[in-house]
Amino acid sequence: MNSRLFSVLVLSLAFASPALANFTVDFSDHPLPANSFDNGSNHSGGFFSSGAFLNNQYHNEYGGYWNGWSLSNVNAPTTGGFGNQYAVVTGTTSTASSTYAVAYDGGPNSSYINLPAGSTPLSIDVTNTAYAYYSMLNGDQFAKKFATGDFLQLQISGYTGASATGTKVGEIDFNLANYKTDNDHPVNVWSNVNISSLASAQSLGFTMTSSDVGQFGINTPLYFAVDRIGLGGTATGAAVPEPSSVLLVAVGLAGLLAARGRFRKITRP
């Protein structure tokens, strides 16, 4: 095989099969009006972003409430309380996109993310909401002020099925607060969490635990926020063509080139 034919074969293989590449779910495909949120009150059931799905369940009772995920760009990092449940303590997202996702943990894995087909989890940015942060920092009418030994932990689990079902393939724990002394404070920056050990997961489930537990369960507001979900694979989740189809393309191009060469040899003076 001459060098020219070899080059054509290499190029044909490169263009016929899309290379796997890392990509990010950053919710830039969900722009919101300034200082606003989408809590699923339209009963959409969740949000799609770059092929990923974040669940949401909205209830009309008691003036309206939700669990799962909401999308937000509320910028009120210094205000605590339930009325500010959609703001992150950082005041901004961790990406150029102005939208981030806020989760309310209504129970184990009640907040989950279905990953795009063909992708693998790599990392995720996590931080506290302003509501949870100031509750832990100062205490409120329901929760204690955190002191030495107190913690708020986020458990990120990978599952082989959708919606945090199937076999659990692993778990990553991240402390949203971990008081080793009374002078510590909850997390107040975006933290990039490595979740590549959950590589075989098709979905991610999220559960929170706290040291502040009362008669009716955890007193700490069970809210957290995520952004910039790093994934490996194709951005659309599209299947990579079968090797046999790629080979047919390459062989076809090689045949055309060879035929063209023979024709030139015959007709050249």
Short description:
The protein has 269 residues and is α+β, with helices and mostly antiparallel strands.
Keywords for this entry:
269 residues, 34% strand, alpha+beta, 13-stranded antiparallel sheet, Jelly Rolls, single chain, two-stranded antiparallel sheet, globular, 18% helix
Written description of the protein model:
This protein has 269 residues and is an alpha+beta fold. It has 2 domains: 1-17 and 241-269, no CATH class; 20-240, Jelly Rolls (Sandwich), CATH 2.60.120.1350. 18% of the residues lie in helices and 34% in strands. It is built from 3 helices and 15 strands. It has helices at 3-16, 130-138, 243-267; strands at 21-25, 37-38, 46-49, 52-59, 65-72, 100-104, 111-114, 120-127, 151-159, 168-178, 191-194, 203-210, 213-214, 217-218, 223-233. Strands 1, 2, 3, 4, 5, 6, 7, 8, 9, 10, 11, 12 and 15 form a 13-stranded antiparallel beta sheet that branches. Strands 13-14 form a two-stranded antiparallel ribbon. Helix 1 packs antiparallel against helix 3 (243-267). The longest helix has 25 residues, at 243-267. Residues 3-20 and 235-269 have low confidence and may be disordered.
Task: Break the fold down into its secondary structure elements and pairings.
Layout: H1 3-16, E1 21-25, E2 37-38, E3 46-49, E4 52-59, E5 65-72, E6 100-104, E7 111-114, E8 120-127, H2 130-138, E9 151-159, E10 168-178, E11 191-194, E12 203-210, E13 213-214, E14 217-218, E15 223-233, H3 243-267
Antiparallel strand pairs: 1-15, 2-5, 3-4, 4-5, 4-7, 5-6, 6-15, 7-12, 8-11, 8-15, 9-10, 9-12, 13-14
Helix pairs in contact: 1-3
